[in-house]
Amino acid sequence: MERIINLGDYWDAGALRKKAADIRSLTRANAEEHRRATQFLSAVRAIDNDGLRTAALCLDTGKIENFAKRLARRELRAGEGKSCPGKEKRRFFSAVSPEGISLFYESVRFLCGRIIAVRDEYSPAASLLLKYVKEQALGMGYDVVSCYCPLRPEEKLEHLFVPELELGFFTENSYHSMPEKADKAIRAKRFYDKGRMAENKLRLGFNKRAKKDLIQEAVSRLEAAKAIHDELEACYAAAMDFDRVQDLAQGIAEKILE
To answer: Same domain, yes or no, for 143 and 238?
Structure first.
């Protein structure tokens, strides 16, 4: 019942053949920049792994769990009449892009009338706190939207939203900052052992600086890839008959509306 649309039918193949050498060269260059960006992001993940493990050893996990239970009692209304546990949707809220770290903050305000910021430069306290809150919300029957770190999507929970309550939990750090004041803020320093954090200050500081530099280099490579992609796209745009494409689109729209 579906229709396959080949937009290659609407470009000038002869004009593209004349640019074949340029197209091949640009395609290879674009792939190389993406390969380099991936390498730098892999290095970021390795550095982040070390930082997370180091900071996690300084956590008072029992204190976080008890705080999460109190927080859930205050902020989550008991799900009356909800006989089944809630469902979790996993999403990405941020990305490393040619423009830097891109945050889709408009989605937060679309989902939430109330936002609680969890300020944690090192991440493990906020991630564990939100994990406990998520479990409480699901147990009460609320659906949640869980937003994970794009570099560690399997475990690093960064933001949590409960749409039915219009409530959001937002992790703030050097890479994620809110453009407005949160309705409430939780400082994650309270969950770390000050003495152990002091012992690891140099290691954590080195990781933070290295991570920042590596992300910037990955962004630079993505920016270069985007510039090359724009050149490649220009080759095809010059050979495309957009008037025929517009006629095609109009015909498809009319068929849909019949």
So the answer is: no
Q: Distance of CA 233 to CAs 24, 116, 166, Å?
A: 12, 42, 41
Q: What is the pLDDT of residues 226-252, one digit of tens each?
A: 999 999 999 999 999 999 999 999 999
Note whether 108 and 115 are within 8 A (CB): yes
Total number of domains in the chain: 2
Amino acid at the residue 129: L
Q: What is the Cα–Cα distance from 21 to 8, expressed in whole angstroms?
A: 19
Q: Which ranges constitute the DSSP H helices of the chain?
A: 13-18, 20-56, 61-75, 105-111, 124-139, 194-199, 201-239, 242-257
The angle that helices 124-139 and 20-56 make with each other, rounded to 10 degrees, is 90
Phi and psi at residue 59, to the nearest 5°: -85, 150
Q: Where among 164, 189, 214 does a domain terminate?
A: 189
Could you tell me the CA-to-CA distances from 226 to 44, 106, 158 in Å, in that order? Answer: 21, 24, 27
Over residues 162-205, the pLDDT tens digits come to 999 999 999 999 888 888 889 999 999 999 999 999 999 999 99
243 burial level (CB within 10 Å; 0-12, 13-18, 19+): exposed
Chain centroid, CA 232 distance in Å:
27
Q: What is the DSSP letter of 187?
A: E
Do residues 210 and 217 touch, judged by C-beta distance below 8 A? no
Residues 116 and 138 in one domain: yes
Tokens matching residue 248: 């095609």
Amino acid occupying residue 7:
L
Domain co-membership, 164 together with 144: yes
